[in-house]
Structures are given as structure tokens and as C-alpha cells.
Design a protein that fits this description.
About 50% of the residues lie in helices and about 15% in strands. It has a single domain, classed as Rossmann fold (3-Layer(aba) Sandwich). It is of the alpha/beta class. The chain has 10 helices and 8 strands. Strands 2-3-1-4-8 form a 5-stranded parallel sheet, sandwiched between helices. It is globular, with a radius of gyration of 17 Å. A hairpin with a 5-residue loop joins strand 5 and strand 6. Monomer. It comes from Candidatus Wolfebacteria bacterium RIFCSPLOWO2_01_FULL_38_11. Its EC number is 2.7.4.3. Keywords: ATP-binding, Kinase, Nucleotide biosynthesis, Nucleotide-binding, Transferase. One of its GO terms (molecular function) is AMP kinase activity.
Length: about 230
């Protein structure tokens, strides 16, 4: 079994592929921090205390339309958070970021996420998983997905079909995410293909560890595959 220092694990995948679910399962297993960048960004964007902030209002509109947020703004808040987690001497699992070439690798004005991770954790300690599902399955999963209004746990679509209205984890009310409407999911898929695929290709060129996973299986089977790759069983 691998003797753990601190690893940085990135989970890529289209909407509905289970990035957040797998990241949280791994975080619980390894005692790492799951940095769900999408959730972190949404919490900032929809915090009422920022309603008068012009930048937040602009970024909120992008988020509502299914488009990606402005890269320099994302990098500013994400880079800071990664450094904070590393200072706590914790491993990190990212789901939902990086989402663009600029986010991943930066430029003369912006430090990219991969550079931050390499500095904080070392290249050999970065593991990258790509969860692959067909577009039809992505749309189906998102349109049936529910989120707990209290603990924010994602609930499998089968729960919705069983007409269960409260979270099985904490008892909170279940609700649909505003960005899980079909037209927004389709837009998010386009953004993923256009913006995120090129990152994966570039990471391969740069010799990062990349492992492809068939995400059409049940979550526990996917988790088992990912765990074995990390633990070297």
C-alpha cells in the first residue's frame, strides 16, 4: 500500500459524471480536503452580502447561463484556497477545476492551478482522473439529480423516482439545482468539450499521471477503481 505524504488529486468529468461524489468519498477515506471549486464559487456568487458587488453580479450572470466564470477571477480565489489547504498540511482533492487552459497553466499575469499544485505538492504527487460518460447519460443524470438543501449532498436520480422528499443523510429538504435544467446542462457540456478537453491533452504532453475511468457504473464501483489506482493495490 502507498505510504501517504500529501497528494493532490484532480477529478475531471462532464456534468453528471460524479466528480463531487467521488472526490468526497476519497476525502473521507484519506482524510483530505475536498475542494469543490464549483460549489465554492456558487457560494460566493449567491451570498446575499455580495449582491451589490459589480464583479460578483457579472460572474453570477455567467454562472446562471451555464458559461464558465472569468478565468482571472477564478484563479485569484482558487489559488489562494489551495495555498491555505497546503499550509494546513493536508492533501487536496479538486473537482470542477481547472476548467480552461489559462486556469490550468496560467500566463505572464496569472499563476495557473497546476503551477500552484506543483509548488505545494510536487509533480509526482499529483494524480489526475478523468470520468467519462456519454452526453445523453450526463443530461439524464443532471435532470434527475437532487441536492440536499442543508448538507448539500448529491442524491442519485433513483431517489427522485421513488418520490423521497428528504435527505437520507441529514433529513434536510431535497431540491433541484438551478443549473440542472436541460438547456443549461447542454451548454455546460459544450463548455466542457471546448474548454476542458484541451487541458487533458496538454497534461498528457507534460507527463502528468492521467487515469481514465468509465463513469457509467454505480458510484461505489467507480470509487473502488480510483482507490486501487491511488493505493497501488
Amino acid at each position: 500500500m502507498r505510504q501517504f505524504g500529501n497528494l493532490a488529486i484532480i477529478i475531471f468529468g462532464p456534468p453528471g459524471s460524479g466528480k463531487g461524489t467521488q472526490a468526497q468519498l476519497l476525502a473521507d477515506k484519506l482524510d483530505y480536503v475536498h475542494f469543490d471549486t464549483g460549489r465554492y464559487i456558487r457560494e460566493l456568487l449567491y451570498n446575499p452580502k455580495f449582491n451589490k458587488n459589480k464583479t460578483i453580479k457579472k460572474e453570477r450572470q455567467l454562472n446562471k447561463s451555464g458559461k464558465l466564470n472569468t478565468t482571472p477571477w477564478v484563479l485569484k480565489i482558487v489559488d489562494k484556497k489551495i495555498d491555505e489547504i497546503n499550509r494546513l498540511k493536508k492533501g487536496i482533492i479538486l473537482s470542477g477545476s481547472p476548467r480552461t487552459i489559462l486556469e490550468a497553466f496560467g500566463n505572464n499575469k496569472n499563476r495557473g492551478i497546476m503551477k500552484v499544485l506543483e509548488k505545494d505538492y510536487g509533480k509526482k504527487n499529483i494524480f489526475i482522473f478523468v470520468l467519462n460518460i456519454p452526453e445523453k447519460e450526463s443530461i439524464k443524470r443532471n435532470s434527475h439529480r437532487l441536492i440536499c438543501s442543508v448538507c448539500r449532498s448529491p442524491i442519485l436520480g433513483i431517489i427522485k423516482r421513488c418520490n423521497i422528499k428528504i435527505c437520507p443523510f441529514c433529513g434536510g429538504k431535497l431540491e433541484s439545482r438551478f443549473d440542472d435544467k436541460k438547456e443549461i446542462v447542454v451548454q455546460r457540456m459544450k463548455e466542457y468539450r471546448r474548454q476542458t478537453y484541451p487541458i487533458i491533452k496538454e497534461l498528457k504532453k507534460r507527463k502528468f499521471k492521467i487515469i481514465n475511468i468509465n463513469a457509467a457504473a454505480m458510484p461505489y464501483k467507480i470509487y473502488s477503481q480510483i482507490s486501487k489506482k491511488i493505493l497501488n493495490k
